[in-house]
Amino acid sequence: DTGVSQDPRHKITKRGQNVTFRCDPISEHNRLYWYRQTLGQGPEFLTYFQNEAQLEKSRLLSDRFSAERPKGSFSTLEIQRTEQGDSAMYLCASSLRGSPSYNEQFFGPGTRLTVL
Amino acid sequence: GDSVTQMEGPVTLSEEACLTINCTYTATGYPSLFWYVQYPGEGLQLLLKATKADDKGSNKGFEATYRKETTSFHLEKGSVQVSDSAVYFCALYSGGGADGLTFGKGTHLIIQP
Q1: Measured between beta carbons, which residues in chain A are less than 8 angstroms from residue B36?
Q2: Is B90 helix (H, G, I), strand (E, B) or coil?
Q3: Bridging pattern class, strands A53-57 and A65-68
Q4: What's the pLDDT at A58?
Q5: How far apart are CA A25 and CA A27, in angstroms?
Q6: Picking from A3-12, A57-66, A95-104, B74-83, which range would have the lowest pLDDT averaged per residue?
Q7: Are B26 and B6 in contact (CB under 8 A)?
Q8: Which residues of B have a CB under 8 Å from any CB of A?
Q9: Partner-chain residue, chosen from B44, B46, B100, that has the shortest CB–CB distance to A48
Q10: A15-55: per-residue pLDDT in tens?
Q11: Mutation site, A4, A47, A107, interface B, largest B CB count within 10 A
């Protein structure tokens, strides 16, 4: 399978705990994106990386959220001191900057977070 | 800022009916436009796209035309099947500032046999 993968697929945690999600993009893709999707809404952009550099962060990304892509391959998204409002599906996508279809993003299956 | 508005769902149709899901947008510059589909239990999949005015994207019998004058990108299919039941998202990419996609809220399509 050469698509975008995410781990875990589901995470249940208690309020106040820290959680970390992982995304593995399509191997040759240099751009990686994180989105959040709540029930009944479309995905909302959180942040993106070009190679290992984090180039943009949405206002939705509070100080409790941090993302890394240390070697320009996989990425992690950490949420500290989770709140019930963080419950959502967290989606990862990747694309290849410099290709004719550079703005075409391929999505992973998502990690569903439930904060109790 | 950029925004996408699409018709509220759910939309319920009988098999072989004609489908139109409306999508209008507000964006700076000349965005690229997309339709993504999310089947039950699966991730988002790109259905079709158009990158400039008057372009028509098409895939799996679905079509959408980039109309700059009306800032619209309506999704159409002449004869829907039960297997088309899914949530459809209209999205745009303007690349100006935030480099993520801007999505609409999604339209849940239900096709009855």
Answers
A1: 107
A2: strand
A3: unpaired
A4: 85
A5: 6
A6: A95-104
A7: no
A8: 4, 32, 34, 36, 42-46, 49, 51, 89, 91, 93, 95, 97-106
A9: B100
A10: 999 999 999 999 989 999 999 999 889 999 999 999 888 88
A11: A107
